[in-house]
Amino acid sequence: xxxxxxxxxxxxxxxxxxxxxxxxFPVRVCxxxxxxxxxxxxxxxxWYSQTGNSERTGRLIAETLNKKGLNVNASDYRDFDPKAIGxxxxxxAGSPVYYYDVPENFKLWLKSLPAITGKxxxxxVTFGGTGGNQHNTVCTLADLLAEKGGxxxxxxxxxxxxxxxxxxxxxxxxxxxxxxxxxxEIAYDRMRAYAGLILDRVRQGQGIEIDKDCDFRELIKxxxxxxxxxxxxxxxxxxxxxxxxxxxxxxxxPVDAIDLEKNHVDTDxxxxxxxxxxxxxxxxVHMEFMGKEVxxxxxxxxxxxxxxxxxxxxxxxxxxx
Length: 321
Ligand SMILES: Cc1cc2nc3c(=O)[nH]c(=O)nc-3n(C[C@H](O)[C@H](O)[C@H](O)COP(=O)(O)O)c2cc1C
Ligand code: SF4
Ligand code: SF4
What we know:
Layout: H1 4-20, E1 28-29, E2 42-47, H2 53-67, E3 71-76, E4 90-96, H3 104-111, E5 120-128, H4 134-146, E6 151-160, H5 165-169, H6 173-177, H7 185-203, E7 210-211, H8 217-220, H9 223-231, E8 233-238, H10 248-252, E9 258-259, E10 264-265, H11 275-279, E11 285-289, E12 292-293, H12 297-303
Parallel strand pairs: 2-3, 2-4, 4-5, 5-6
Antiparallel strand pairs: 1-7, 8-11, 9-10, 11-12
Helix pairs in contact: 2-7
Bound molecules: flavin mononucleotide (FMN) and iron/sulfur cluster (2 copies).
């Protein structure tokens, strides 16, 4: 548990973040340059994904662009060489909504990209359940690429069953299960249509302007929400007796907070993304939220006999997830 001094320090930092990082007023995202590539031959579809929703969406968009004649590189951002971004005629970036925002690690990576002056780009986010600030989050994602000189040609949001493990672990399974049929064929058709739409816009040289909504969640997104969640998380450790040393949690953790040799999690560095607990195949990541054991996404799917249906393009062995 945090002692009083750490608590006050973190509280002040959260308030500082709250007062400086966000604005309640609507913001417009628009191109800062003319579009230079209107006959795209290549595309990069890049995503951040912890539990597969944003990856599946990215892969379907990539497959659709590929069928329309583009040579597409589809990749998790962690496997993509940022220096190669300039080689693509069209860029698509996708992210989950975490704590009402684009996750900080993906933001940092996007900020580190070289300039993409005049290149068309599209962004999408995947969100859970009824959602939470998904429109503004996809605008934030677009803004990061517009800041690099890219020209926006599309934004879109796609709903899923939430992967916020704390909700079901705390006894609210039903709230999550309400969306167990997502994504469905209608959602997959929307993804295919989105890929077609952005390509049409590029070919017509038609950039778009995007307006953020006025939403109080802009004030509590990211740091304050992560901080508030972490206040109720305790006993976040690795259970050495269950761990099979598969390394999945190390790969998933965006802040290198896990030490498998010591079975230790650096809870100060942790950003509560739940990637470790959601993906551990052995149930060896221990975490409590308000005294209740948090269990992961794949365990939740199994307990409820659920399988996420894939779109037909991703069902063959070569394209399967
Ligand atoms: C740590 C965490 C925070 C989340 N925060 C939000 C949120 O603020 N708003 C929302 O609509 N969904 C939220 N979700 C749900 C995810 O956005 C949604 O399940 C998403 O599709 C996961 O994508 P992925 O499988 O590609 O990681 C959250 C999920 C997690 C694990
Ligand atoms: S994901 Fe689980 S089993 Fe694999 S190394 Fe991490 S704690 Fe151990
Ligand atoms: S240790 Fe924290 S930041 Fe790292 S994967 Fe686990 S929940 Fe995410």
